[in-house]
């Protein structure tokens, strides 16, 4: 017998909610039970424009979604400055929480969210979609093979895109009262997560922000970078994120025996195929006229796009908890907290004149 789908309520009508709500409809174990906005009219229009089921309830407040007994879990795509209030309240109402990134303004805020989720026994997961693509597991398989990759020594990740139109003036991500972390919390979150993922979530000892980040008139960061150091191990990493440079979503991972590169890690160029390149034991050809072997291209296919796989996994965890067969999976809050800790260290390094800052966890 098929399991009852997890009923998800959505808090707000953010643009990203259009994509994730589509994922909820594609996922076989979830449904959209409710949508809440600051106005009922906006909630009704959003539900209609995005083809929500007729059964979806429309509310003119976020509180109404949280008070609905037919909502098992909530997706929170609100501005980062609102995450603490609404994620904590959702957890206190016994709703499982799928939270957009960055999950908080700092680790202190995130800890209060995670404490509320743990106290209520609900699942927490951040909405970092690429983590759920089958390509990610295949890449990790290669990185974990000592004969093929050797010892991992360096990771570099870049995520950038040009903020078009009035983005740099009016988007939520450049508003200091809504998302004060700017590009660091948006694009930087992905690159930092990629670095931690490659290093099996071993936190660096220090983080050093690269000088001369770019800001808007309100003091929000629009481009920045940093280097991460694990000390006494020879392991390093760097990242760069920007709202000023062409769309780029790269991870380059270097080992003593192999290397791996992916050029669309955040959002695959084709939602059904995730390619990447890997090579082992490279050397120069005669007269250095090339190298051999040449990198192999891997193409990992998927029927469901990565965001639907994310929602499906979230739904699976919630089903296990609600059915009494499982407890909340601690992997996801742990990964979120480590990512936030590195972001905090980058911010601290910038404020301290680009000096190395120890990562506190």
How do the helices and strands line up, and which of them pair or pack?
Layout: E1 6-11, H1 15-26, E2 30-36, H2 40-49, E3 57-59, H3 62-67, E4 73-76, H4 83-92, E5 96-99, H5 107-120, E6 124-126, H6 134-143, E7 152-160, H7 167-170, H8 182-198, E8 206-209, E9 214-215, E10 221-229, E11 236-242, E12 248-255, E13 258-262, E14 273-280, E15 283-284, E16 291-292, E17 296-301, H9 306-322, H10 331-351, E18 357-358
Parallel strand pairs: 1-2, 1-4, 2-3, 4-5, 5-6, 7-11
Antiparallel strand pairs: 7-12, 8-10, 8-18, 9-10, 10-11, 12-13, 13-14, 14-17, 15-16
Helix pairs in contact: 1-9, 4-5, 5-10, 8-10
Cα-based radius of gyration, to the nearest Å: 21 Å
Strand segment tally = 18
**Known CATH architecture of the largest domain:** 2-Layer Sandwich
Average residue-wise pLDDT = 96
Query: What is the CATH homologous superfamily assignment of the largest domain?
Result: Dihydrodipicolinate Reductase, domain 2
Q: What count of helical segments does DSSP give?
A: 10
CATH class of the largest domain: Alpha Beta
Low-confidence stretches: none
> How many separate domains?
2
Using the alpha-carbon principal axes, give the shape: globular
Subunit arrangement of the protein: single chain
- Strand fraction equals 25-35%
Helix content: 25-40%
Name the helix and strand elements from N-terminus to C-terminus, one letter apiece. EHEHEHEHEHEHEHHEEEEEEEEEEHHE
Distance between the termini: 44 Å
Examine the coordinates and then state which fold CATH places here, giving the name of the CATH topology of the largest domain: Dihydrodipicolinate Reductase, domain 2
Judged by helices, strands and strand pairing, the structural class is alpha/beta
Question: Largest beta sheet, briefly?
Answer: 10 strands, mixed
């Amino acid at each position: 017998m098929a399991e009852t789908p997890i009923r998800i309520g959505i808090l707000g009508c953010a643009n990203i909610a259009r994509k994730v709500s589509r994922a909820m409809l594609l996922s076989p174990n979830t449904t959209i039970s409710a949508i809440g906005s600051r106005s009922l009219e906006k909630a009704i229009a959003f539900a209609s424009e995005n083809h929500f089921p007729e059964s979806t309830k429309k509310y003119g407040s976020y509180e109404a979604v949280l008070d609905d007994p037919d909502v098992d879990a909530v997706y929170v795509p609100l501005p980062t400055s609102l995450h603490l209030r609404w994620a904590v309240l959702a957890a206190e109402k016994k709703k499982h929480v799928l939270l957009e990134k960055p999950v908080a303004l700092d680790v202190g805020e995130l800890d209060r969210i995670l404490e509320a989720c743990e106290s209520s026994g609900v699942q927490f997961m951040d909405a970092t979609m690429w983590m759920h693509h089958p390509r990610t597991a295949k890449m990790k398989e290669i990185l974990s093979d000592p004969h093929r990759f050797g010892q991992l020594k360096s990771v570099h990740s870049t995520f950038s895109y040009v903020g078009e139109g009035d983005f740099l003036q009016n988007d939520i991500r450049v508003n200091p009262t809504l998302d004060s972390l700017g590009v660091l919390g948006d694009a930087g979150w992905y690159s930092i997560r990629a670095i931690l993922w490659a290093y099996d979530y071993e936190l660096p000892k220090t983080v050093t922000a690269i000088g001369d980040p770019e800001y808007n008139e309100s003091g929000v960061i629009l481009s920045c970078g940093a280097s991460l150091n694990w000390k006494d191990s020879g392991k390093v990493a760097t990242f760069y994120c920007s709202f000023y440079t062409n769309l780029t979503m790269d991870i380059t991972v270097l080992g003593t025996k192999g290397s791996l590169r992916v050029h669309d890690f955040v959002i695959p160029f084709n939602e059904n195929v995730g390619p990447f390149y890997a090579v082992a034991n490279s050397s120069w050809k005669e007269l250095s006229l090339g190298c051999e072997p040449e990198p192999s291209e891997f193409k990992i296919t998927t029927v469901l796009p990565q965001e639907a796989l994310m929602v499906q996994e979230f739904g699976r965890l919630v089903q296990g908890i609600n059915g009494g067969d499982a407890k909340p999976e601690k992997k996801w809050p742990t990964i979120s907290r480590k990512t936030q800790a590195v972001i905090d260290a980058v911010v601290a390094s910038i404020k301290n004149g680009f000096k190395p800052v120890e990562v506190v966890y």
